[in-house]
Write a structure and sequence with these properties.
about 190 residues; alpha/beta; 8 helices; seven-stranded parallel sheet
Length: about 190
Amino acid sequence: MEYHFAAVCVPPLYVKAARQLLYDSGVKVATVIGFPFGYSAIEAKIAEIVLAIVDGAEELDVVVNISAVKNGDWQFLANEINAILPIIRNSNKTVKIIIESGVLTDDEIIKCCELYGAAGVDYLKTSTGYAKEGASVKAVQLMRKHLPLPVKIKASGGIRTYAFAKELIDAGASRLGCSAGVEILRQAVE
């Protein structure tokens, strides 16, 4: 609240408490779904989404099923987004799809852009922060090139300096997800 960040992302367990602490502050509560690898069954992700919404989450960061991406099972991924998106939309919540770009090939990133861009998600997000490689300028540029303009990019994972944050924004990121946000702002002032 002090730094007027757009949102705070907390584990599902803490959504209720975060909502109470942030009430009427303008800072949104985000939480993760299928975290960190997206391996959950579609029905499990739906249950997580419904509970998160009931608990007060305003933004849902859904991890794609990385196994399905790596197996080229685009039909599974289409079924998944088609099952979860109406629930999120009917609740007027924001959806961010985390693709874990650091473990994907360029072709896989492009196919994710095509699928989730056509679905009309709010954001495509680079990383959970758990992979060896998080956000990269290259991934953000590739995503921006292959996403429809209304779909924003959230760069996340390994962002620790103002210089890197600025590079990501210049490459096309609309939002950053970083645990070093306060330090980055301090560096920006300097």
